[in-house]
């Protein structure tokens, strides 16, 4: 696994309220939006911030299981260049002592992802998103939607 974080996702109680805070309050510009579900903001240095409804994020990562691990409402993400790389990173993490929270699988948004928890319980998503690009250094670029 390369030494990088691609995306920080915050599980929020009220997506509209969170958007007002970041967009109206802080002046951030939306890079990509799935109305009512998730919003992404491109940050500097190839990093992105996502806001995801907390309940939906709990379901997506299967954090509502009975392992006893408390979900803090935050996930870190490593974006991979392929499904094969996702599987390799998940295996590497498990070998290093991570607990697989959700095995990698095809997901509703058209990509492939899984989740693991590090030894301290921090949640990581490992994802291949065919709609997003990584430069040779692994910096993430979220494409802006076409002008309407």
UniProtKB/TrEMBL annotation:
Pfam families: Glyoxalase
Domain named VOC: residues: 4-129
Gene3D superfamilies per the UniProt record, alphabetical: 2,3-Dihydroxybiphenyl 1,2-Dioxygenase, domain 1
Domain of life: Bacteria
Bilayer-spanning residue ranges: none
Protein name: Glyoxalase
């Amino acid at each position: 696994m390369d030494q990088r974080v691609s995306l920080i996702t915050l599980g929020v109680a009220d997506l509209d309220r969170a958007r007002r805070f970041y967009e109206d309050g802080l002046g951030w510009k939306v890079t990509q939006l799935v109305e009512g579900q998730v919003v992404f903001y491109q940050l500097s240095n190839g990093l992105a911030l996502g806001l995801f409804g907390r309940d939906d994020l709990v379901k997506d990562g299967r954090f509502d299981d009975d392992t006893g691990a408390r979900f803090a409402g935050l996930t870190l993400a490593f974006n991979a260049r392929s499904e094969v790389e996702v599987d390799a990173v998940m295996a590497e993490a498990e070998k290093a002592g991570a607990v697989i929270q959700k095995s990698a699988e095809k997901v509703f948004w058209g990509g492939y992802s899984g989740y693991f928890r590090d030894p301290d319980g921090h949640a990581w998503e490992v994802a291949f998103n065919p709609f997003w690009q990584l430069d040779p250094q692994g910096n993430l670029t979220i494409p802006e939607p076409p002008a309407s």
